[in-house]
Amino acid sequence: MFSALVILCSASLALAVLGPISTDAPAPAGGSIANNQPPLASFWAGHSPPYPTDDWWVGYGAGSGNAVSAGPFPYESNLAASSIQFGISSSRQFDGTSIKQPTQTDWSVGFSEHSGNFADHHAVQWDTQSVQVEYVTGASSMIGYMVPGSPYLTFNFASSTPLLTSGQGAITSFGGTAVTSGGAAVSSTGTRFTVVNSIGTYVIYSLSGAITLSAQATAAASTVKASKAFTGVLRVVKLNSTSHAALLDQYVATYPTSVTTDYTFAGNSADLIFTWGVVGTASNLLMLTWPHHRIKMVSPNFPATTALNYLTTKGYMYPALGNVWTLAYSLPTITWNAPRAPDSSCTSAIVQGLKYEIAKLSASAPSIPGDFYYWGGAIAAQGRLALIAEHLGQTSLISEVTGYLEASYAYWFQSSSATLPAYETSWGGIINKGGATDVNVDFGNGAYNDHHFHYGYFLTGAAIIAKYDSAWLAAHKTYVNYFLRDIANPSRSDPYFPVTRHRDWFAGHSWASGVANGAGSRDEESTGEGNNGYYGALLWANVTGNTDMYNYARLLLATEQHATQIYWHLYPEQSSTDRDQPYPEPAVRALITIGNVEDWQSGAWLFWGAEKVEIAAIQMLPVTPVNEYLYDSAWVNNVFNYAQNELTDPTIDDEWKCVIYDAYSQYNPQAAATLSTGLSDWGTGNTYTNTLYFIATRPNTGGPICSTTNANPVGTFAISTTAGQYVVSTAASENLIASGTAATATKFSFAWQPNSGTIQNTVTSQFVTADQSGIDALASARAVASTWETFTIRQKVGAATGVYSIKANANGLYVILGAGNALINGATTEAGSTGFRIQ
Ligand SMILES: *[C@@H]1O[C@H](CO)[C@@H](O)[C@H](O)[C@H]1NC(C)=O
Ligand SMILES: *[C@@H]1O[C@H](CO)[C@@H](O)[C@H](O)[C@H]1NC(C)=O
């Protein structure tokens, strides 16, 4: 009994990276193709695909292989022809929008026997965090262990003469002795040397006994060179303060060579475990932490923060001892729908929206995929209608949605389709075939940009179909799994895909950047969609009954959401000296949301938009139930207040506002519900129904969520002013003029649309249209109602009951009487509008 219990416990907690989802050769309808951004053959010599495409160090092996790469932090580095170059940015600037720490080369480390041929270095091995790079010429070699979080860079020499070259001016001091430019070399023998150039002090340690090094500053170069060939380990570290020397000296003897990233699951908790492979005493491994590590580490062994620190784009790195870090996370338990029923005050409006939006869907032809990104965003939003229908007991509507989705997905399985996935053979992955040779297709999908954004949507839509159609699931499971394997493969044993393509496990989040543009700087500017990538994986794993993958996706999502909150959400109320917040500058935190986190800068900007609502909304969308964890009250409230001027500006698109209101509902659902009744556009990635459903399902103790009436009058009516002037519009004179009597009034048919409606002339059957200028009269002049033919008609505030304001959604302005009593959409405020009776 006792021993059985022990075995059960140890089995459930055993470290074991998950096995592959599948090892089958992908056979998508687009076949196989190689992209035009191939891996650098010399760097990958001796290896075969799949290769990492979005890791911090992909610049070593993509393009020409010399791009500055996003680590190993606190350093950034690049591979030169005969040396590894690195530095810690010594310039941190805030320009009002971004904090920047431009990369720099402090030192290069190589050996004097190296040929100087760029092809004479290659990857030895890599794991999910680190890579070993070897420079070799004849019998002489040097391996660099490029391990994120190590304060020291570590170089293992074999029969080679170490050569360090200053990247920051002349060496001025070596081993405490002044070095004169153009003067004699200064030599020193020992195991610890300080060397100073214009950027400050580095310490060079030998772990392999005394070595003789000599420093010389000539006009051509400043170098530190060994007296003869050396076999052993040197470590090099930036000493930014003399007060850091004690800790660095104490722990230099143990160095990391690799990392295992593992995890354990227990119910709705998971431990993420980093175990560094070390040479030396494991408990004496000195590493550096970022804020997201410190918050989640279990039983950490932290030396004083004053003992060692480096300020980076993710805030201060502080020391931790030991070769195992355990980071504890709560896993999301929300899957398809919100964990509570919609507030009863909102249900009738949600059901009305469901029926309207699903009827429009089933009346239209299937969406023919023209790309991955926009198609996916729309299909996932439409799929949510089926899930919401289920939650509201409107089960008869579900098949209308899934039928539409299935007809659209069918194109992905037919080789005759214009847009198709293909298996990309040079790196290993599923790409948009049309993007194999064109980075302008799908935002560089063919060069491995943005797959987590794109495939999260794809997986969500497929999971929704599969939830309701097991035959479809059985028929297409293998195929849809290609997309799961592309972004969430947990195992090196899948011979076709790298492990969790976008995730930087040390940085704690995903990078969207693939192998294009020489594969330099990394960025992530759409955390909402990055998170959604792992949500899509979670749903697909759940519906296919793959519990291991469901848990792995939950861990990916929990970690990604946490990093989003730490590095993208900004909190002016935090203290600048808080150990675990990344932006010490109050002016940075006042920006409320980071748009783009890159390796060397982070700022409130996007590649494509400058509005506050855009910068914030792209960190929030798509709006799904699992974002309950992401939309923390403090941040959504900050965003709401910060973006007020745009939220109240009628020229700013509702497709952004609806997302902001959804997130804000996590803080104040009643206010969000009222604000949402003013929306007339939800974009292609959201819907009226989903917006209201999300608001209606927020945790709430404040009474009914939906109170304001959000419907236009519906029926056939005449329109008149309060002075009894009736609106007339005829085939001969289409403009709406308040010139008639009750007897001569034109009758209009008012129909419902979400939050608004259409007005159709019953005599001419033409829909009333408003133009965007606010100068021309409304006119019964359109056979089909589109966005300019919708109006928001509400009880006018402050007027007698039954007196309405009419707002044209064409320009967000209210209708007034203009010259000749023509109805014109020209008033910016409701107070300035004309009151109408509709009866
Ligand atoms: C180095 O120290 C200076 C002075 O204290 C500080 O301003 C700078 O941020 C430090 N650099 C790093 C990378 O921590
Ligand atoms: C699917 O998700 C539900 C929670 O909605 C969970 O209880 C169940 O265990 C999951 N199943 C699998 C196979 O992941």
TrEMBL record:
Keyword presence, Hydrolase: yes
Protein origin, superkingdom: Eukaryota
InterPro entries: Endo-beta-glucanase, GH81_C
Domain called Glycosyl hydrolase family 81 C-terminal: residue spans: 348-674
E.C. number: 3.2.1.39
Coiled coil residues, start to end: none
Keywords: Carbohydrate metabolism, Cell wall biogenesis/degradation, Glycosidase, Hydrolase, Polysaccharide degradation, Signal
Catalytic reaction(s) noted: Hydrolysis of (1->3)-beta-D-glucosidic linkages in (1->3)-beta-D-glucans
Keyword Metal-binding: no
One Gene Ontology MF term: glucan endo-1,3-beta-D-glucosidase activity
Segment forming the signal sequence: 1-16
Record-level GO BP terms: cell wall organization; polysaccharide catabolic process
Family designation: Belongs to the glycosyl hydrolase 81 family.
Name of the protein: glucan endo-1,3-beta-D-glucosidase
UniProt source species: Athelia psychrophila
Lineage: Eukaryota, Fungi, Dikarya, Basidiomycota, Agaricomycotina
